[in-house]
Each structure stands twice: as C-alpha cells, then as structure tokens.
Amino acid sequence: MKDLNIGMIGYGFMGRAHTNAYKRVNDFFDLEYRPVLKAACARNAGPAQEFADNWGYESIETDWRQLLQRDDIDAVDICVPNNLHKEISIAAAEAGKMILCEKPISMNTAEGEEMCEAVERAGVPNMVWYNYRRIPAVTHARNIIASGKLGRIFHYRANFLQDWTIAEDLPQGGNGLWRLDVDAAGSGVTGDLLAHCIDTAIWLNGAISNVTAMTETFVKERVHSDTGNVQPVGIDDACAFLCHFDNGSLGLFESTRYARGHKALYTFEINGENGSLKWDLHDLNRLEYFDYEDDSPVRGWRSIHISDGDHPYLGNWWVPGLCLGYEHSFVHQVADFLLGLANGKPAGPTFRDALETQKVCDAVLESAKSKAWVDV
Ligand code: SOE
After folding, report:
1. Cβ count within 10 A of residue 202
2. Ligand 1: which residue has its CA nearest to atom 6?
3. How far, in Å, is the centroid of ligand 1 from the Cα of 337?
4. Can you list the positions of beta strands (E) in 95-220?
C-alpha cells in the first residue's frame, strides 16, 4: 500500500469531517493508497497543536507556505475561509501538491478559472468537497436517472434551509462566523448552501443554461468580530432562483438561514415523464421513488431504505438494513479520490467540475442585482 501524506490547512468543522474520513477510509475500503495524517496547519500554534493531538497529526505548521515547502507532504486539504482558496491552491499546484479543496471552489468564477488553470498546468490531482453526491441515496438517485427510468425530465427543485443567523446580535467575521463576512465568504447562502444544491443538480440533471434570482439581506448591519465595529452586512441571507437546464427542464431553488426550525434541511426532487425521485437530508438513508410503470393497483410513492449490500457504497459497511450518516459521505469521497489516483480516472467534482457550479452562483448573484435573466 502506498502512503499519501496529508497536510491539513484549517481545523474547524470541515477539518474534522475530512480528517475523520482519512482515518476511516482504509478500514472499510480496499485501496492502493493510505492517507497519513502528516501535518496540521493553522495560524496559531496552540489550536494547531490541540487539533493535531486530538486527531493524530504527526506535526504542525503555522504557515501554509512552509507546509507547501515540505517534501513529506503529498496532498493538501484546504479547509479555510473561501477568500484563501485561490492563493493556497495556486501555490500548492506550483509546489506539485495534490489538492482537496473545501467548497465552494472560490469567491467567484474568475478566481476559480485561475485555480483550474493552475492545477491543470501542474497536472496535480484535484477535487472539491461537494460531499452530498456521495450519500448512498443520492448516488443511487443518480444511477436511476442515468438508467433513463425517469424518461424525459420536466422539473428539478431543491431547498437548503437553516435558521442559525436570525439573531441580530450575532457578529460577522472571525472563527466560526466568517460565513457572514462577505470579504471572507464571497457570498452568503448562495456560495455556502445553494452551491451544494447546484452541484447535485448539475450532477443529476446536467448543465444549467440561465437563471433569474432574488436575494435578501434581512439583517443589514452586524458587529464585526475582528474590528468590534458595526459594519454593513454584504452577504445574501436568503436566495431563490428559477432556471432552465440544457435538457429543457425547469429548475426551482431556494436557500435561507432564516427558516426558523430548520437546521440543515437539504431536499431535492426531480420529476420525469415516467417517474419521480425525492430525497431529504434529515432522512438521508431513504430515497422516495414513484414509478409510473408500476401496475395501477399498487402504483404510488415507494420509500426505499438505501441500506442493502448492492446499494452504492453499502457493501463496504455493515450488514444490510443498518444505517449510515453524514460523515460517511466524506469517507466515500476520499475512497473515490484514492481510487482515482490508482486507476487514473479522476474522481469528481474536480476543480473544473466545481467551476460550473461557481458560474451558476455568479449568474444567480448577478441576476439578483440586475433583476434580469442571466445566461450561465
Ligand atoms: C453551513 O452551516 C454549513 O456548514 C455549510 O458550510 C456546509 O457546506 C453544509 O454542508 C452544512 O452547512
């Protein structure tokens, strides 16, 4: 087995989700490569060391440039705010490192394009962490759609609803709250949540051609954690858009951090001529399926428990009927990345794939501003 030495940049929620995946993957998947937790990198030595000790990284760095100089690092995982993705990715590509970058790929399309060019010029394997593709029920949905069973597709709709930013005294910026700071995040729910919906939608239903959108910022000013000053809020708190897909179907998307009662309600539904599918993150092991070709006395929505040995990824886990969770989607993504290294077929979404999602996000924000339809 070949070692793949990982340098993790960042130590927040995503740093933990990805590290858990590196640690678990070889216990359950038979692979040529084995991730080794070589170094954890963060600006301050204290948190970096605490993270390294908790999760088993062998060493720490406090400067990502130093991490990139190290010969004992094969791949870097970028788990820092979006405004740092571009600089670190380009430098990592120039240093010949493989890159696994947290979503969204970048602050905007122009940055993402530069990042794609850098990894392609350097020829380094690259991937963006759109993890929901690899929840087995979502992968299964993709397989059913690809088999043609739904027939011609008419509609695709998705929501990602949260409620954690309703309080007006919540600051913007700093650890944990950088997602509210436009300079660090680039956008609000569009880049953070709708980007997931768009990635899945493109993967399941193909490219999006044009969009018309609206956004709202409900809380206009917040104290900035770094400066202590009250500053205008530059992110979108909520966003909804309509779109056309290249295959002729219509799309309807909504995301907000102001849907009281919803913590992370990601749902999608797709309606075709011969059938429909729907999925809900809060019941992630179930896929709802309607098949119009069923005999009429028994025709109706089926709730398929995606837990059998022949469902995607499930054969690698427990016995049929037992459930997986959110964290397994990351394990599956690492497994596919490592498989791609071994067989030369890169696992998606690559930087180039993720750029398509970024282009849709940019078109959505532009349309919300101009109040007009925008081509992607
Ligand atoms: C935001 O709360 C967030 O953590 C996103 O940043 C993640 O990408 C999403 O999967 C869950 O919600």
Report:
1. 21
2. 192
3. 21
4. 98-102, 126-129, 153-161, 208-216
Q: Where in the chain is the domain with CATH 3.30.360.10?
A: 132-375
For ligand 1, pick from 85, 192, 266, 267 the residue to mutate: most ligand atoms within 8 Å of CB: 192
Q: What is the pLDDT of residues 89-135, one digit of tens each?
A: 999 999 999 999 999 999 999 999 999 999 999 999 999 999 999 99
- Using one digit for the tens of pLDDT, what is the confidence trace for 233-265? 999 999 999 999 999 999 999 999 999 999 999
Cβ–ligand 1 distance for 353 under 6 Å, the answer: no
CATH of 2-129, one of 3.90.1210.10, 3.40.50.2020, 3.10.50.40, 3.40.50.720: 3.40.50.720
The pair phi, psi for residue 9, each rounded to 5°, is -105, 110
Closest atom of ligand 1 to 13 CA is 4
Q: How far apart are CA 68 and CA 19, in angstroms?
A: 18
315 by Cβ neighbours in 10 Å (0-12 / 13-18 / 19+) ranks as: exposed
Name the CATH topology of 132-375.
Dihydrodipicolinate Reductase; domain 2 (3.30.360)
Tell me if residue 360 falls in helix, strand or coil: helix
- The answer, yes or no, to whether any atom of ligand 1 lies below 6 A from the CB of 336, is no
Categorize the per-residue pLDDT at 266 as very low, low, confident or very high, splitting at 50, 70 and 90: very high
Under 8 Å between Cβ of 133 and 127: no
